[in-house]
């Protein structure tokens, strides 16, 4: 038996005692106590339906053409119900970062899911690749692996319950039309969902570049190893999620364009629950450790963690993910999920992320950076990064305290030589 097969078997055995993904609408409106697979042994009071791009004429033109600037509803559902699977594929220039995916629950005005199409499905920097995890999987033809905006089959299996309504929309914020295929599979129930049912949320963020105080300093030297603690860490770490309300954080994907070269990691994850304190409630030991790897990132894609895009295959583009499906981070009032960009935030690379969490509505509204500031940094024929100010996001002021000033001076002397 191979290692991946053993891993799948282990998770299936674990799932026999795990809660189901969605509510079972029974007379008592209770959550299904059975497991993901165990629930298949009981009849449920649910109607299974699908919203898709199929051609009602019966011919084979099953894609929708989405014009520049156009918004299109992919689904407008009336609850109570739960979306159980989303599949999408599309083709067009820049589609993975130009097209924004939006999801609204129960007639809310602000979307609970707001992310570029590719990044939501764990394909960052507009790069396509095949990978599989438990909540997300993508499928790309062999000749299109690790290319920009090639066609890809995108799958999401995260449950998306709703009481009154669910509305899914795409918005083409690019300058070219594109073609969109989709399936949205869902169930409708004949009884209300429990009062403690929480809603899926997803938020995209980007810093290009991160506000590194010493990007010239080589990782591993004594000069980069400065103190990063307390309010300085709270303010300066890369921010993955800032949410208010009650719920649980279930993970993220993190995309890096490695402008500085070498190893981009060593950034500790720091997660604050229900307000600031020091140390934070969860304090990690390095980027690769938070992402479930060790001594750098390895080329693999597992159910709970891995790399959907591998930097050695792409000359510096990396997307990695970690999912807290068995160890969600629960919060009662608010949560702040952060990670250092290089130890002590000394590096200035391109970071982008999507955070995934469930919470009771209403959520704190959040936006998304303009389409120009979402464009991936490209490389020239020699592999040098083409830095375009139009793609950059505003930087926070960089504070050079006395230790940082001293380390920059010492590195400058070392770099200058005798």
Description:
The chain is mainly beta and 418 residues long. The chain has two domains: 1-194, Jelly Rolls (Sandwich), CATH 2.60.120.1390; 198-301 and 311-418, Sandwich (Jelly Rolls), CATH 2.60.120. Helices cover 12% and strands 35% of the residues. The chain is built from seven helices and 26 strands. The protein has helices at residues 3-15, 95-98, 117-120, 230-236, 287-290, 311-314, 402-416, and strands at 46-52, 64-66, 71-78, 81-91, 99-105, 113-116, 127-128, 131-132, 136-139, 147-148, 153-156, 160-162, 165-172, 178-189, 199-207, 238-244, 247-257, 269-273, 282-283, 305-309, 317-323, 329-331, 334-339, 350-359, 378-379, 385-386. The strands form five sheets. Strands 3, 5, 6, 13, 15, 17, 20, 21, 22 and 24 form a ten-stranded mixed β-sheet that branches. Strands 1, 2, 4, 8, 9, 11, 12 and 14 form an eight-stranded antiparallel β-sheet that branches. Strand 8 (131-132) and strand 9 (136-139) form a beta hairpin. It is globular.
Annotate the secondary structure layout.
Layout: H1 3-15, E1 46-52, E2 64-66, E3 71-78, E4 81-91, H2 95-98, E5 99-105, E6 113-116, H3 117-120, E7 127-128, E8 131-132, E9 136-139, E10 147-148, E11 153-156, E12 160-162, E13 165-172, E14 178-189, E15 199-207, H4 230-236, E16 238-244, E17 247-257, E18 269-273, E19 282-283, H5 287-290, E20 305-309, H6 311-314, E21 317-323, E22 329-331, E23 334-339, E24 350-359, E25 378-379, E26 385-386, H7 402-416
Parallel strand pairs: 6-15
Antiparallel strand pairs: 1-14, 2-14, 3-13, 4-11, 4-12, 4-14, 5-6, 5-13, 7-10, 8-9, 9-11, 15-24, 16-23, 17-21, 17-22, 17-24, 18-19, 18-23, 20-21, 25-26
């Amino acid at each position: 038996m191979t290692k991946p097969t053993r891993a799948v078997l282990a998770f299936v055995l674990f799932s026999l005692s795990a809660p189901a993904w969605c509510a079972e609408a029974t007379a008592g409106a209770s959550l299904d106590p059975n497991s993901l697979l165990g629930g298949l042994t009981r009849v449920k009071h649910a109607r299974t339906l699908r919203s898709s791009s199929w051609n009602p004429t019966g011919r084979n033109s099953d894609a929708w053409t989405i014009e520049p600037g156009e918004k299109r509803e992919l689904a407008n559902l009336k609850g109570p119900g739960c979306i159980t699977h989303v599949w999408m594929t599309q083709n067009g220039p820049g589609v993975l970062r130009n097209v924004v995916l939006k999801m609204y629950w129960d007639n809310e005005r602000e979307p609970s899911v707001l992310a570029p199409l590719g990044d939501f499905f764990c394909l960052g920097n507009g790069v396509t690749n095949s990978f599989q995890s438990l909540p997300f999987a993508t499928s790309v033809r062999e000749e299109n692996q690790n290319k920009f905006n090639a066609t890809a089959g995108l799958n999401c299996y995260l449950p998306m319950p709703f009481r009154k309504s669910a509305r899914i929309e795409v918005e083409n914020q690019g300058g070219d039309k594109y073609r969109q295929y989709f399936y949205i599979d869902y169930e409708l129930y004949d009884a209300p969902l429990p009062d403690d049912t929480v809603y899926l949320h997803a938020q995209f963020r980007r810093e290009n570049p991160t506000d590194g105080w010493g990007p010239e300093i080589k990782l591993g030297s004594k000069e980069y190893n400065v103190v990063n603690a307390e309010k300085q860490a709270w303010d300066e770490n890369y921010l993955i999620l800032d949410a208010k309300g009650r719920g649980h954080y279930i993970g993220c994907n993190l995309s890096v364009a490695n402008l500085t070269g070498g190893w981009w990691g060593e950034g500790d994850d720091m997660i604050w629950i229900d307000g600031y304190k020091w140390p934070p409630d969860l304090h990690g030991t390095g980027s690769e450790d938070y992402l479930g790897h060790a001594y750098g990132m390895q080329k693999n894609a597992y159910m709970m963690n891995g790399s959907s895009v591998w930097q050695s295959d792409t000359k510096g583009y990396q997307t990695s993910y970690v999912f807290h499906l068995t160890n969600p981070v629960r919060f009662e009032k608010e949560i702040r999920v952060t990670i250092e960009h290089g130890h002590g935030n000394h590096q200035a690379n391109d970071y982008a992320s999507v955070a995934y969490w469930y919470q009771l509505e209403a959520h704190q509204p959040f936006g998304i950076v303009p389409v120009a500031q979402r464009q991936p940094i490209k490389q020239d024929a020699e592999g040098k990064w083409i830095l375009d100010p139009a793609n950059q996001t505003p930087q926070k002021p960089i504070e050079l305290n006395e230790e940082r000033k001293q380390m920059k001076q010492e590195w400058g002397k070392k770099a200058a030589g005798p």
